Amino acid sequence: MRIALFEPDIPQNTGTIMRLAACLGVAVDLVEPAGFPTTDRAFRRAGMDYLDRVRLTRHASFDAFEAFRAARGLRLVLFTTAAAMPFLEHAFTPDDVLMFGRETSGVPEHVHAAATARLVIPLRPGLRSLNVAMACAMAVGEALRQTGGFTGPAPARQESPVAASDLVFRD
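Request: output the structure for the sequence above.
Response:
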């Protein structure tokens, strides 16, 4: 499983996604040019103290990324607000590259055309989109759940379960 960021604009989002990838053992592909300097110093300034734990591959262009992906037989799964298929209905594989577009403009049409699948995270009517780092966390979580890709230790079981009557829900 891999995460690909297409020409990201916001270093804080990129840093958050890279931290997620480090913690979950997912590789990251950074398709340049980015809208900020892609140096170790810039990532560390964005709070990326996990940089040494990320398997990061930088690609000078989308064409270079495509050559990399094709040589490895990886599927490109694009997350986009322009898709019709909800991400929870997609069957992920360990050979998927989950791509997220530029925060300000998404991805161009040639990237849409290259995708094996185009997926959307359904939102409430009238709302435009999620923060890219939040969308990435949701997508990677589901993809790893489906593929058995979580590598960390299992969480400890709760000693005393919470009863549904103890929960309070507010609108």
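Residues 103 and 132 are 7 Å apart (CA to CA).
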